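Work package 3, deliverable 3.1, input record:
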Amino acid sequence: GNSVTQMEGPVTLSEEAFLTINCTYTATGYPSLFWYVQYPGEGLQLLLKATKADDKGSNKGFEATYRKETTSFHLEKGSVQVSDSAVYFCACTGTASKLTFGTGTRLQVTL
Amino acid sequence: GAGVSQSPRYKVAKRGQDVALRCDPISGHVSLFWYQQALGQGPEFLTYFQNEAQLDKSGLPSDRFFAERPEGSVSTLKIQRTQQEDSAVYLCASTSRTNTEAFFGQGTRLTVV
């Protein structure tokens, strides 16, 4: 079956620092790739997605590029804010849109 | 409704009790998924419905877990004879027919004591 590996947290950054959260996947076929975010006390929200190789997903200053050759979908943001503090999950689809998630990376941004 | 709604938000059950968790998907969404999220882990797939048909239940951890969606809308996840290892957040998600984006509810946090 599919699997997703993402860097362990917590990641602690100062405001305006550059963020990278690594994600690699193992999947058959041509999965779609996602980053979901879970803010404290809230449900999972889709942050961005990419459906085919070389696509770049972007939202709220975050971006990630679907790299088939390295089976990666790393999340980046040029300048993080305190409000970005959350848990970030990388995921890929299998059959019928079933999602396989990584274990999550907690991001803490300080002033 | 505007989003996926789950109830209750929190449930404490004594070991051996049966529990029922409810999910109201976004109106008109055909597909419905249940996931289990243990503390500090990512969500793990439990089961999937397309309309009222349960097409995949490969993630259900034991025969104590049962899910239904009899009219193709609201779904119920039932856990019989709860055990401590069942303690987790149970997430429901729905997708429309043509969009692979899954919309998640806020989850039900089940604690078995």
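The mean pLDDT of chain A is 94.
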